[in-house]
Amino acid sequence: MPKVAILEHIHPSGINLLKKNSAFDFEIIENISKENLINKLPNFDAISLRVIKLDSDIISKCKNLKIISRHGVGYDNVDLNSLKSNNITLAITATANAISVAEHVMFMILNISKGIDMYDSAVRKGQFLKKDKYSKTFELWNKNFLIAGFGRVGKILIKRCLGFEMKVYVYDPFVDEKTIESFGGIKVSDFNGSLKNMDYISIHMPLTDKTKNLINSSNLKTMKKNSIIVNTSRGGIINEKDLDEALNKEFIFGAGLDVFEKEPPDTNNPLLTNKKVLLSPHSSTFTEECSERMGKETIQNIIDFFDGKLDQSMVVQL
Ligand SMILES: NC(=O)c1ccc[n+]([C@@H]2O[C@H](COP(=O)([O-])OP(=O)(O)OC[C@H]3O[C@@H](n4cnc5c(N)ncnc54)[C@H](O)[C@@H]3O)[C@@H](O)[C@H]2O)c1
Question: What residues are annotated to the active site?
């Protein structure tokens, strides 16, 4: 009988799938210290994984392990070389989280554009209709929006942007013009060159050697003064020091970050005290609906794997 290790909390409806299935044995592992994982995980055939790091020291000891099922779509916390050399499958929750992330982007751009926090605090401080106290706010209508990375999240986000009647440009060298146009977008090939025309930029690509520091002091300087940039993909794609400087020098109007170069960010990270950036703790998938879908899909992927019917769209090609 396959033994499943559940590392870190997942939604109870995911765990219920295992409770109802007598073909599996499972254990929730609360102590996620490296020492305990090296000690316990070699007994398991499958692992459900959230954000803790599974490095080669741990994976090389897991001689029974056949599948790691990631609760999410990113997998930078797993040593891929070890998975490949030990013939271990890596599954992701490919269909579970794009809607919540796309809604989080809309929430961030609306919050910053409409000055929600500023107005809320003005009412509470007795500054009702004191227009000299308010900073600029913006409409979304007819604005240029650049979606950088047109995968699962980008394709859901474009529908929300078009609903606000924005003009949507897409930068993704791996997606052809016809596909982008079929979603109502306009393909952009020169990323840096396009930035000077954009009012909104939202990042939806993986962190790789090519995308690290993609947004930096050189291109931040070229952007519109009223532009707003949002990153819900991975920290490090926007250089945080350069972003802080660009906001302080008013090269751009605002930014929204759900992800950071280091998570949690250091307490002395200047962005934590910068009022022009809206922050969230890598929480764009924390909605009730998305948590439930992710919990179920993480466990269903394990069950399907052992039943020999895991959908290949859930599998990362190593
Ligand atoms: N904040 C969160 O909780 C959260 C949740 C879901 C996804 N994410 C992250 O968001 C990102 C997008 O997720 P997704 O599910 O849409 O991924 P996806 O794999 O479906 O899409 C990624 C897209 O990026 C494109 N891409 C790759 N390299 C590129 C480059 N150099 N320039 C431009 N485009 C490039 C790919 O062609 C692909 O279309 C990932 O980094 C993922 O880890 C974060």
Answer: 234, 263, 282
Domain 98-279 CATH (choose: 3.40.50.720, 3.90.25.10, 3.40.190.10, 2.40.240.50): 3.40.50.720
List of the chain residues with pLDDT < 70: none
E strand map for the chain: 3-7, 25-29, 46-49, 67-70, 89-91, 144-148, 167-171, 186-187, 200-203, 228-231, 254-257, 277-279
Give span(s): CATH 3.40.50.720, the chain. 3-96+288-314, 98-279
% of the chain beyond a pLDDT of 90: 98
The third-level CATH classification (topology) of the domain covering 3-96+288-314 is Rossmann fold (3.40.50)
Query: Measuring from each residue's beta carbon to the nearest atom of ligand 1, which residues come in under 6 Å?
Result: 73-74, 97-98, 101, 148-154, 171-175, 204-206, 210-211, 232-234, 258-259, 282, 284-285
